[in-house]
TrEMBL record:
<dbReference type="InterPro" id="IPR014745">
    <property type="entry name" value="MHC_II_a/b_N"/>
</dbReference>
<protein>
    <submittedName>
        <fullName>MHC class II antigen</fullName>
    </submittedName>
</protein>
<dbReference type="GO" id="GO:0006955">
    <property type="term" value="P:immune response"/>
</dbReference>
<dbReference type="GO" id="GO:0042613">
    <property type="term" value="C:MHC class II protein complex"/>
</dbReference>
<dbReference type="InterPro" id="IPR011162">
    <property type="entry name" value="MHC_I/II-like_Ag-recog"/>
</dbReference>
<dbReference type="InterPro" id="IPR000353">
    <property type="entry name" value="MHC_II_b_N"/>
</dbReference>
<keyword id="KW-0325">Glycoprotein</keyword>
<feature type="domain" description="MHC class II beta chain N-terminal">
    <location>
        <begin position="1"/>
        <end position="66"/>
    </location>
</feature>
<dbReference type="GO" id="GO:0019882">
    <property type="term" value="P:antigen processing and presentation"/>
</dbReference>
<dbReference type="Pfam" id="PF00969">
    <property type="entry name" value="MHC_II_beta"/>
</dbReference>
Amino acid sequence: SQRVRYLRRNSYNRQQFLHFDSDLGYYVADTELGGPTAKQWNSDGTADRMKVEADRFCRHNYEIFEG
């Protein structure tokens, strides 16, 4: 099985304020605006769902394109 990295970037007004990195396994605030959202999403199960998405969606599609 190949290593797959999933990045999800959240932007507001064309500025990235928050991102999820599957290598870290949690959301990171890129600006002050993203702080409360990162804290909430890391504690309410959203980050856990993103980890599952990395395996379910990204790894599956990687295997299709590399297969």
